[in-house]
Amino acid sequence: METRVSARRLAVLLGPHSTGVPAYRWLADGIRRLVADGRLLHGTRLPSERELLTQLGVSRTTVTRAYGVLRDRGYASAVRGSGTVVQVPGGPVAGGGEPLELSSLQPTGRDVVDLTCAAPAATPGLNRAYEAAVERMPSFIAGAGYFPLGVPELREAIAQRYADRGVPTDPDQIIVTTGALAALAATFRAVLRRADPVVVESPTYPNSLRALEHAGARVVGAPLVTEAADDVAGVIRQSGVRMMLAMPDFHNPTGVVWSDDERARIARKWRGSGVTGVVDETMSDTWLDGPVDARPMAAHAPGCVTVGSAAKTFWGGLRIGWIRAPHALTGAIARARLTMDLGAPVLEQLVVAHLLRTQGALSEESRQRIKDSRRVLLGLADRCPGWQVDVPTGGLSLWWHLPSESSTALVTAAERHGVLLAPGSLFAVDGRGLERWIRTPYALDAVSLRRAVDGIADAWSEVSSTRKAVGSI
C-alpha cells in the first residue's frame, strides 16, 4: 500500500524556512532529515512540484532542484506513475526487532509484519542528537574512554529526571548500562543468591524471565497486582522471597498501571518482609491518553531499585539503560556491573543525555503516531468475533482475550498470512498456558498495522473454521 504525504503536511514537518540558506538546499536538507528521523517512511510519495511550490511559496525551479539533490544523494527516486518517492539510501534494513525467544528463531522479510516486537520507531530529532553528540566527542577522545558507571553528564541528567518526578536522586545513585536487560542482570547478580525465590507477576515480559533464570533465581508466579493485590501480598509472605520484579507503569504485555494506593501497599509489604523491589520503568514514559496519576514506585519504596531505558522512549538502537539504586546497594550493583562489561558506548550516552535535556520523554509527534497505530489495531475487535481487550492508556501493546484456547494455533496461521505473533504462553511465568491470550504491539506504523489487521483477521477466520469443523466431527 503506497503512502503519500500532502504538501500541507510536509510544510508543517519542514517548519519555517532557514534564513541565509538557499531555498532549494533548505528544502532538500529538510526532507533528508525527515527521512533520516523516520518521520517520512521509506516509499512515501512526495507532493508534486506544482503542489509544493504553491504550499511553500517558492519557485518551481527551487522544488525541481531540491528533488534532484535528493535523488542524487539517494534519498529519493523517480517512479513512473508515482512521481518522486523518498527512500532510505540502500533501503531499510530488514529485522532489527526486539529479540524475544520466538522471533530470534524466525527469519523475517520485508513482506512480513513482525508483531513479536514492541518497540516504536526512532524519535523525531534523533539524527540531530547524534550530530550534537559527535560535536561533543573531542572532549572525551583525549582520555581513555572508560566510564564504567556512565558519562557524568548523562548520570546527572538521569538523576535530575528522577528529581523532577518527585524522587530526590543524586548522580552517585545512577549506574548507566547497555540497555535495561543489562541493568536487570547486574541487579540480579548483586542481590540474589542461586535458587533465591523471586516473585513475578504473570503474565510478564519474557526477556526479564530469561534474565532471572540465567541468574539462577527460582521464579514464583503471582497474579497481577491490579487484579489481586491481596493474593500478591500472600505470595510474598508465604514464599519467603528476597526480591519482587515489578512493572507498575504500563505493564508489558497487559498495559495496566498500578494506582497510588496499590504502590503504597506493595511498598509496605516489601519493607515488612525485607524484600528488595526491582522496578522496571522502561514503559513509564509511554503514556498516550494522559500522564500516570501516581507517584513513581521509588517515592513509596526508597529502598527499591529502579531500572530505565532509552529504547521505548527514543529508539531501540540506543542501547543505553540505567539503574537508580539506594546508596546502600550502589556499590554492590556497580561491582556486579563491572563483571559484565566496562561501560556503555560514549557516543550513545551523549546522544541520550542530549535527548533528555532537549526532549525529556516521548515526543508529542511520537505519541500521536502511536495513538494512531493503536486505533488501527483496535480494528481487530470488529474483524475478529469474540475478541475482547481492555484498552490501555499507554504502553505499546494490546493484550487480547480470545473466545477459545487458540493462541498457539493463531500464531501458526498468522505466519502463513504474513504476520508474526507471539503466543500467550511466551508471557507466562512457567512458559505454559495463557492460550486464551495474544499480545499485539501497536508500535509499528499505521500502514504496516493495517496489513497486520488483515492478516490476523484472515488467520482467525481460518482457526475458527478449523475448530468448528473439528467440533462437528
| Terminal Cα span | 41 Å
Shape: globular
For the report, how would you describe the main beta sheet? Answer: 7 strands, mixed
Please report the number of helical segments.
18
Which range does the strand content fall in?
5-15%
Judging by the overall fold, what is the CATH architecture of the largest domain? 3-Layer(aba) Sandwich
Low-confidence stretches are 103-109
Name the CATH homologous superfamily of the largest domain: Type I PLP-dependent aspartate aminotransferase-like (Major domain)
Percentage of residues in helical conformation: 40-55%
User: What name does CATH use for the topology of the largest domain?
Assistant: Aspartate Aminotransferase, domain 2
Domain HTH gntR-type: 21-89
Protein name: GntR family transcriptional regulator
InterPro entries: Aminotransferase_I/II_large, HTH_trans_reg/aminotransferase, PyrdxlP-dep_Trfase, PyrdxlP-dep_Trfase_major, Tscrpt_reg_HTH_GntR, WH-like_DNA-bd_sf, WH_DNA-bd_sf
GO molecular function: DNA binding; DNA-binding transcription factor activity; pyridoxal phosphate binding
